[in-house]
Specification:
The chain is an alpha+beta fold. It folds into three domains: 39-141, Tumour Suppressor Smad4 (Sandwich); 183-344, GAF domain (Beta-Lactamase, 2-Layer Sandwich), CATH 3.30.450.40; 365-594, PPM-type phosphatase domain (Phosphatase 2c, domain 1, 4-Layer Sandwich), CATH 3.60.40. The strands form six sheets. A six-stranded antiparallel beta sheet has the order 5-4-14-13-10-11. Strands 17-16-15-20-19-18 form a six-stranded antiparallel beta sheet. It has a five-stranded mixed beta sheet with strand order 7-6-8-9-12, with no helix packed on it. Helix 3 (185-200) runs antiparallel to helix 7 (318-364), helix 7 (318-364) packs parallel to helix 8 (413-430) and helix 8 packs across helix 9 (436-450). The protein is elongated.
Length: 595
């Protein structure tokens, strides 16, 4: 039986029958055909904003896409700009359709906004804004990977044109089909090892992975006939493994009696009476397609080694070697995909944990400010990341005195957020009945003892009584602005060192007599140092300009005017620091009681 005259039907796990036609005029040229696709044949290649990627099969109709899992989404995209139920993919009349289900701003196919569109292989689905998820629709799981594998063995000589060669080719195609199955990764890799053992006639096969500080560990081990072998105690030839790693290519020895002297004399080879060894290093491969649909493979990260050995000499044909190379490419693809999936899962877990941390942090900030007998207050915090390092609070010190503060922890992200929580805990436990100097002294001691090196916080801490007498400490924070009778001043420029920086720091208390309806605007440097697209800073002078004529305005209006001024200046440029405001207005006790 000659392979070049065969039409081979390869069974599919989903019931469809892909057909490989090997035409006599073109040698081993493969054309892949199939019946009408079932729902499970289509897949989505998802490219995340961070660069990771994964593949998801479309298993149901409708197949829902959106943010979070509470809306029953099959594909969950953790991006706050994506609606909870943004789109659906429908399977109708043997076609897949994308349908907008409420995405804010619309859903796009190949850059064009659409309400409903039939999808073609290679269509790119996006959501209308930069830095978002990009989804590529693939109409069939039998994709270019099959063509790539057949290309690898396209030069098979006539000597391999036998039923044996056909069986080996069939194993290769079955392995390719496994790439798109829903089986666990280890099950797919085990089957691939079984096929490699069948092709080579080896006694056993192993998949080894890097395991620092040791060179590698055995992840899977198989024997002839699909026999599972415990990885414990296995001793692959370290000399063969080192040779493959050194060459960065396959080390295939058919008869160790004729091999290099270092292989012949290797202790593991002698102890196990080995006669044939195969060691194929696996590397992550990036694939670029040219206009002629040829493939350019580039070696990436080292992923592991396929290792096979036998106590009998072997005779590997050109087809055997090409199939082994193909197995190595596909094993590397599986391991690389598994690694990317694990990275994506880890990223999603981290995002979920950060989201929880953000919710907790935001819950710690005062909300629905209570009415104090001698002051009105409002505030807002907008982190530049999921969690921030800014903090503000307002709380009573006694019936006649109310404390307020704003703080900015150095750095951003989770580390700054944790120190912010520590800061709040220290203040809540130490503030009642204390004077400002004692409060900051104990907070400084607490942070110096418990926070990591280099973590500190600037802070403005004030205590206002019924008569308008303000006691304050400025611990390295930008001076609050004072609105008084239409003028804007900076009366708090002098101060002490930040808290948590140097143990034993002395904090001096300042005093200021506020007049009725004086308004203090406390802000973090995320306001004054907000950047536009040209890297120009907003600056305190623009902040003062935004307060012009706002002396008698309600506090919410003052806050809105500042935020709008910052937004107009930055024009949507991404910010590197949190934006926090706390606005306090002194009200005489008699007027406050009347109101």
């Amino acid at each position: 039986m000659h392979l070049s005259n065969l039409t081979m039907l390869n069974r599919r796990t989903d019931g469809a029958r892909p057909i490989v036609v090997i035409h006599p005029c073109f040698g081993l040229r493969a054309i892949l055909m199939s019946n009408a696709p079932a729902i499970g044949e289509a897949v989505l290649d998802i490219a995340a904003p961070g660069g990771s990627s994964r593949r998801v099969s479309i298993t149901e109709s409708p197949f829902f896409v959106g943010r979070g899992d509470r809306s029953g989404n099959h594909l969950q995209l953790p991006d706050n700009r994506i609606s909870r139920r943004c789109a659906a993919i429908l399977f109708e009349s043997n076609r897949h359709y994308l349908e907008d289900r409420g995405q804010h701003g619309g859903v796009f196919v190949n850059g064009k906004k659409t309400d409903k569109k039939a999808l073609e292989d290679g269509d790119i689905i996006s959501f209308g804004f930069e830095g978002a998820y990009q989804i590529t629709f693939r109409s069939s799981v039998v994709d270019a990977s099959v063509q790539r594998l057949l290309t690898l063995i396209g030069g098979m000589p006539g000597g391999d044109s036998s039923s044996s060669g056909l069986g080996k080719l069939n194993l290769l195609l079955e392995t390719t089909m496994l790439l798109h199955s829903q089986l666990p990764v280890d099950a797919v890799l085990s089957t691939m090892l079984d096929h490699a053992i069948a092709v080579t006639g080896a006694d056993r096969g192993m998949l080894l992975e890097p395991d620092p500080p040791t060179p590698h560990r055995v992840r899977l081990a198989r024997g002839k006939g699909g026999l599972r072998i415990s990885p414990a105690g296995l001793a692959p030839s370290q000399t063969a493994l080192s040779l493959a790693m050194e060459r960065k290519s396959s080390a295939i020895t058919e008869d160790l009696n004729e091999a290099e002297l270092n292989l012949q004399g290797a202790q593991s080879v002698i102890a196990q009476s080995l006669r044939a060894v195969v060691a194929i290093p696996l590397y992550a491969v990036s694939r670029a397609t040219s206009a002629e649909s040829s493939f350019d493979f580039r070696r990436g990260d080292f992923l592991g080694i396929i290792y096979l050995d036998s106590r009998r000499p072997a005779a590997f044909s050109k087809l055997d070697r090409q199939i082994l190379d193909a197995f190595a490419v596909e094993a590397a693809s599986i391991l690389d995909n598994a690694r990317l999936v694990e990275h994506e899962r880890h990223r999603q877990r981290l995002e979920q944990e950060i989201s929880i941390a953000r919710d907790i942090q935001q819950a710690l900030l005062p909300r629905g400010f209570r009415d104090f007998p001698h002051l009105a207050v409002t505030g807002i915090n907008s982190p530049c990341l999921e969690v921030g390092g800014d903090y503000f609070d307002v709380f009573p010190m006694s019936d006649n005195r109310t404390a307020f503060l704003i703080a900015d922890v150095c750095g951003k992200g989770l580390g700054a957020a944790l120190l912010t929580t520590m800061l709040q805990g220290a203040l809540s436990g130490l503030s009642t009945g204390s004077d400002p100097a004692r409060v900051l002294h104990q907070v400084n001691c607490f942070l110096c003892e418990h926070s990591e090196v280099g973590r500190y916080a600037t802070m403005f801490f004030g205590v206002l009584d019924r008569d308008g007498r303000l006691e304050f400490i400025n611990a390295g924070h930008p001076s609050p602005l004072l609105l008084r009778r239409g003028e804007v001043t900076e009366p708090f420029t002098e101060g002490s060192l930040p808290v948590g920086l140097i143990p034993g720091t002395h904090y001096d208390v300042g005093f200021l007599q506020l007049q009725p309806y004086d308004t203090l605007v406390l802000f973090s440097d995320g306001v004054s140092e907000a950047m536009d697209h040209d890297n120009q800073m907003f600056g305190v002078h623009r902040l003062r300009d935004s307060l012009a004529g706002q002396h008698d305005a309600p506090l919410d209006q003052i806050q809105k005017a500042i935020l709008e001024s910052v937004g107009t200046f930055t024009r949507g440029a991404s910010q590197a620091d949190d934006i926090t405001l706390l606005i306090v207005r002194y009200r005489p006790a008699s007027r406050a009681a009347a109101s």
